[in-house]
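User: For a teaching handout, I'd like to show students what a predicted protein-ligand complex looks like in token form. I'll give you the sequence and the SMILES for adenosine-5'-triphosphate. Please answer with just the structure.
Assistant: Understood, here is the input followed by the structure.
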Amino acid sequence: MDGPAVEIEYLKKRYGSFEALAGVSLSVPRGSVFGLLGPNGAGKSTMIKSLLTIIRPTECRGRMLGRPIGDRATLGKVGYLPEHARFAEYLTGREVIAYSAGMTGVPVRETRGRVDRLLETVGMKAWGEKKLGTYSKGMRQRIGLAQALVNEPEIVFLDEPTDGVDPEGRIDIRKMIEGMKAEGRTVFVNSHLLGEVEQVADQVAILSHGKVIRSGSVAELTGTGKHFEIRTLGPVPPALRERLESAGIQVAGDRIGVPAKDAGEVQSVIDALRAAGIVIRELKESRQSLEELFLSAVQGARQEGGQP
Amino acid sequence: MRAAMTILWDSFRLLQAKKLFWIALGISMLVALFYASIGFNEQGMTLFFGWKEFENPLLRQGQPEAAAFYVLLFTDVILKFWLAWIAVALALLSTASIFPDFIAEGSIGISLSKPVGRLRLFLLKYFGGLLFVALQVTVFTVIVFLALGWRTGEWNLTVFWAVPVVTFVFSLLYAVAVWIGVWTKSTLFALLGAFLMWGVALLGQWTESFLYQAAHLVPESGIEFDYRTGEQVEKDSVEKNSAAVSFHKTAKAVVTPLPKTRDCTTYLKRLIKMKERDSLLAGVTFDMLLSGSLPDPRMAGAMKRNDERHSFWYVFGTSAIFEAVVLSLAAWVFCRRDY
Ligand SMILES: Nc1ncnc2c1ncn2[C@@H]1O[C@H](COP(=O)(O)OP(=O)(O)OP(=O)(O)O)[C@@H](O)[C@H]1O
Ligand SMILES: [Mg+2]
């Protein structure tokens, strides 16, 4: 039962002549929260749907939970909340969850207890017996999350879970994702809401035009753009400024940006500044936010792949 | 097994949520009750549990013809119009949306991402749709069975043939609706397709029936029909027109691959066995009985041959093949497509 939860060696999906996924490979460690990021139309949903047999990939090599991708029985250990999930209006919240329980083979006598617990977890206890037709968007999304968990899945796929949910609801959903991780489940989240993913994900991959253009742990990825920022009292004198700039350090008025992995590398710059009698008023470590990384990566990919 | 029960239960919940289901069931009960309200006394027939009386020399209490009439009313009027027409049409209207809704974006994913094969999912969902008619007809037939037993004293279990036969007729059209529904994802097209198929099938069957009457029934009844003047002459024996006979033959061959929606319900009359009717009223039509007259034996014989001109295989076998083909196409589209 070791090895990654999902290991895609090669995944390609063509819709007619349009290539939605152009030979992607990625790996999702067990027990982690994995964020798949990408602009609209990047192929995020296509990726999840391929793993869950909802679409038929053109070419696919890889394994999920130790079995080849596309294996039916494995799907019993998987939970899924689709993008723009639509549940039958004539069912009650309880029945929606029970439907997923039945389809994944949860024994009848266990179903009731589990549904009760899940309704509680997603904060819908009072609404369990009401029809979905009377729910708000956020409530449906909560029921959607509950039905994805009813078979106690090893891996949960959430396609834009916070889509259309208010800020408070988003925080709740983030907490639920953290709860899933605490229970030992692997969580695979699709999103273009980077701030949210950044807070909850351990690993991310950025998808653009059907290709993975960056992947790794959040710390690693944002760490590549790590630098230190020094602010001085008054601008840096031109002579010193030239010297610093020739060493690859950015100087803009009273702001000095030093690309460095750790604080040790910054000390020489401080020494030089101090020697010139300059007063330092601030020194801080700063990381590239996921959003900056995302934008620069996606733009970079767009410039590289200039072809249509 | 658990998954199968879940899908069927879901289909049942879906029906329950449909207003049309309850409306159809309501009308169905009214029709059945109306049927039960028909009785017979010394003068003739009574309606609405004895409230209205109609004199009739044949249809009187204790007469075997009365019992036979009562059965005939079921097979020739109620079955033919209510069950075979209105009940099926209402059922199509309310079930045509099942598949388009099922495969809608955001909803199909939940079912497909479960450890249930696509073909199984498809078939279970299909059978779930048939529940609509099966339930309605069962309730209806139970009432009719009780009414028949009460009015004629004969507890005839063969009336329950109505349940599988009417469900089968519905399934022929529903298969078309499902095929077009999974193909176009549109309820409207599914409905149009099913009704169009129904129309074509009916037209085919009417033509065949009409041509049979011209080629066989009319001459066998001893009537010669002059096509130029439109005059009818009764004779002892009449030669069959060979052109008419071959016309009918061609028509029958053309109609063979079509679903026999009408012929199936007509065949029900043969499956529902009634001692009196089968011996006494062979070949007697409903109108004759109402007017209180009986046909001459030659005509009755010709009518009986008309009623029984199709084999079981021709009626149900070819329809089943039609259904298998359409359902395979639908299943193929359902299993192959990306959602
Ligand atoms: N059934 C289909 N037929 C043809 N093209 C499709 C189909 N489904 C998706 N596509 C195309 O594939 C591409 C990827 O779609 P996908 O839904 O995977 O994007 P996404 O990353 O999930 O986007 P979003 O953030 O908007 O949800 C899109 O350009 C879309 O137009
Ligand atoms: Mg998407």
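For the handout, you might add this sentence: The interface with chain A takes residues 2-3, 5-7, 9-10, 13-14, 16-17, 101, 104-117, 336, 338-339 of chain B (CB under 8 Å).
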